[in-house]
Write a structure and sequence with these properties.
Elements lengths: L1 H26 L4 E3 L5 E4 L2 E5 L6 E4 L5 E8 L2 E8 L4 E7 L8 E5 L5 E5 L5 E6 L4 E7 L6
Length: about 140
């Protein structure tokens, strides 16, 4: 019985992971393009890969319709945050303070993106538009993802 539970759990995890990667690929409008099979591709124009370390980041919002995925390039970590509902304020807490200021790209899903520079701290607040996407870019030496 345990084998079956482990197998079905792994299948569900795989389906959810593939869905989330595909959703980030679509909602980032080409800024992230990762292959579902190899988990590698381009992240903000550089070679990158999926990099999950969920214990190093905690994300909360005013509603529960938020997903996130972590990526790594040769010089940065990128946290993609997807809002699936109404506009919300998302709070991202890192396990320790960032040593440099992160850049945040926020898209509304209509080809319009703007950049926000945030202060170095152990948490960030990001105003996400309805159905919006945010890409939190952390230089590699301060990356916590």
């Amino acid at each position: 019985m345990t084998f079956w539970v482990d197998w079905i759990s792994a299948q569900q995890y795989t389906i959810c992971l593939r869905w989330l990667i595909q959703e980030v690929n679509l909602r980032s409008e080409g800024k992230i393009a990762v292959d579902l099979g190899t988990l590698t591709g381009t992240v903000l124009g550089k070679r990158g890969q999926v990099a999950l370390k969920p214990d190093e980041v905690r994300l909360t919002a005013q509603h529960g319709q938020i997903n996130w995925m972590g990526y790594r390039t040769e010089d940065a970590r990128v946290l993609a945050v997807l809002n699936h509902d109404a506009a919300t304020l998302a709070s991202i807490n890192f396990s320790s303070a960032l040593s440099t200021k992160p850049n945040v790209l926020i898209g509304s899903g209509h080809g319009s993106w703007h950049q926000e520079n945030k202060s170095s701290a152990s948490s960030l607040e990001i105003a996400l538009p309805p159905q919006g996407c945010a890409l939190v870019v952390l230089p590699f030496h301060s990356a916590h993802l």
